[in-house]
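A note from the maintainers: we've had questions about how concatenated examples are separated. There is no special marker in the raw files; a new sequence line simply starts the next protein. For clarity in this README we add a label.
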Amino acid sequence: MLTPKLLTTLPQSTPKSVFADFIAGVTVAMVALPLSLAIAIASGAAPETGLVTAIVAGFLISLFGGSRVQIGGPTGAFIVVVHGVIATHGFDGLVLATLMAGVILVIGGFLKAGNLIALVPEPVINGFTIGIAAIIALSQLPDAMGMTLPEGTPADALERIPAMWDARSTVSLASIAIGLGAIVLIVALRRLFPRFPGLIVAVGIVSAAVAVFALPVDTLFGRFGALPDRLPLPRLPDITAARLVELLPSALIIAFLAGIESLLSAMVADRMVAGRHRPNAEILAQGLANIGSSLMGGLPATGAIARTATNVRAGGRTPLAGIFHAAVILGVMMLAAPMAGYLAMPALAGLLLVTAWNMSEPQHWRGYLTTGRVSDRVLLVLTMVLTVLADLTVAIGVGVALGLALRLSRRGVPPADWTPPDR
């Protein structure tokens, strides 16, 4: 079924439920604002692209999606692939790859590809998620410690670690204090007030300390200049046959990540609200959202598990919450863009370090290593290592192929009756 959940839930809405969705939307927007900025910066893009993605893609995912409470936008899972595409093909190449991924997802929605998530082995998903979290953490350590790396330092782990070691003399104690302060505040506020949007409060407090005490710490404005106060006009990227072929692998990876993460998020949301999402409508919505985001110069987008959970805890129960969330971010962008320039870079790095830690789900590490089949553990570790040391495309390709082969072998499929040809 491709019918958006909004059309199903809207006739049942009451003034009370709409107000509850509005409050949830405001709460999620306060969480999404600093995250969207930090994700864009970590991806190698301009910070405003994160806001554009949260506004445009977040609106379209809620408008057309198959989940009652899904919140869409830029996520940490895309940082690695986005950074790689920008480094290799430029930002215009990323825009075209995102547009292609959106078209692939739209086709997938009509072909009912949302039902295929069950075929992706769980160890592969866990492996590349932990690997991506490790890469995010590694990429944020320089900003969190105030390091100055040489321009053009690669994101590859094997080359970045030696570069960080060589730059150890540039470490700033003030930056470390601000980064640690943000981490401590985020964790403390989350535990003390789990329904409160503590992310923006924590980042705001330590950034205010930087301004009040004139600390020698890099800020958003100092590095990127002023943020725009409006959305850009839609624009098509440069499209040629050669570029389409060149960017197809990246587009497939973006489509795969968007589809997998959105459906995983929708399944988590189902358990929280005792609902049932429409997977093919969700895939279609992800496609439309990525097309819309790319045309507006944004980043790839998908359903965000943490923001979706925040929405549910804040009382959101229909897609209106996601639409309100996008509207609030747009309002903040239009009215308070200059204030974002005071945000401290180590604080945003600390935010992403917490995000990476949560993304890796450390509470499950023991279970990964002690339960289940040995082959599943090997598959998880292999996918994780390939993600960190090789390439996300290779990691997913090898992981899925091996996972499906293991699944077939466990079904006791007899070998084919094959006779070598007589040459």
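[label: protein 2]
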Amino acid sequence: MIRRFGCCGLMWLAVVVTGGTVTGQSVGIDPVSTASDLAPIPTFGPFLYESKPDGVAFEKLNPRKCPPMPEQSLLRKGDRLAIIGDSITEQKMYSRIIETYLTVCLPQLEIQTRQLGWSGETAERFLKRMDQDCLRFDPTIATLCYGMNDAKYRPFDFNNSVWFASHYGAIAERLQQSGARVILGSPGCAGKIAKWTKTKAGTLDEHNQHLCALRDLTIEIAGEKRVGFADVFWPMYMAQVEGDARYSTPENPYEVAGSDGIHPGWSGHTIMAYAFLIAMGLDGDLAKFEIDLARNKLSASDGHQLESQSDRQWTLTSSRYPFCASGPVDDDGNIRSGMSMVPFNERLNRWTLRVTGLDAPMAMVHWGDFSQRFPREELAVGVNLAEKFDVNPFSEAFGRVDQAVAAKQAYETEQIKKRFHSKEGQADIEKTVRETEAERMLLVQAIEAARQPVSHTILIEPILP
């Protein structure tokens, strides 16, 4: 059956992508398919749409309802993660956030990560190089983010959607055949018409309609292939509109999609990282501390070891960090700002401190050298230390790991683009792989050396009226 569905004021025929070919069949859900061990694909119909605010910015966009995220983590201990995409991935920003998060927040999983972004790339171009540049490293899980270049910076057309679907689906299938789990990401949004477009065809609204259409088509491909889906477009577009209203000034516009309208800064990349991390099914419970002041007792979750205690003070050693980001929330070049545009702390970064038995209406919580007041009622429910303390006892250690991750990912771009595809690589690719992998391993070891358990203290000081 041919399924006709609409998106963003557009109407097209859905396509099935099988082995790199396109047919005119439906890409609807096959409830008996067992092609993947990922979470079941929902069986809702194609005419359910995301809710959206009122306003002219949303009039021409009606994105399809995003499938629910997995209820359990898709990650397994020792996974080899490949982060794949175009120049936005090669910026090494959302990929760096993801790798740093997995390294310090979930160290028990021992995830190994590679960044494989390539500027100017489309899904078609990656398909041609994926065996040499990606599959030789045997990834067990892969995230992909294509669509921006595939949309060709012009209004939607059906033939282009078929071209995109054919290659994106073929990549997913090839990765599955190699044994990898897959998360297909949608493209992000555009904030301006790209200055490098030759024809300047269409309006910004039409470009975003096209990107939204490819987002919806990616949902269809993910459903047909039984792979994961990361919604990059819709949270970015929502944040672009909301961030402009919330933070922009005439002197300093707030631009989620970046100053050129295509390549995001840290705020936009944080939203992208968030989309992929929740698509992995992560639960975000990184630490739980239960303090009973009446008994002067603290209990801690896994990854946190109680070392000593005195009156209302506890010293712990933690192998799991919070995700740390500081700085002004109104700066689109800031990770913390991006975290404010999505429920990052709520869903991915929960360091919960719950205090009972407090015999005063308020208490000062001292976390290392940092302090804040909290009402008794709030402490009894639980406060998120990672959200309340943007600078905290883990900030310095976190920064060291993050810088080591940045150095490794920078080398991975050089390794693939400059070494594998050089005359040296063409002459003897296996030798080039061996030599560059030895160099890369030193950078991997530097990350491990930087990621050390952190000792920190929690002191609860009652504040009497």
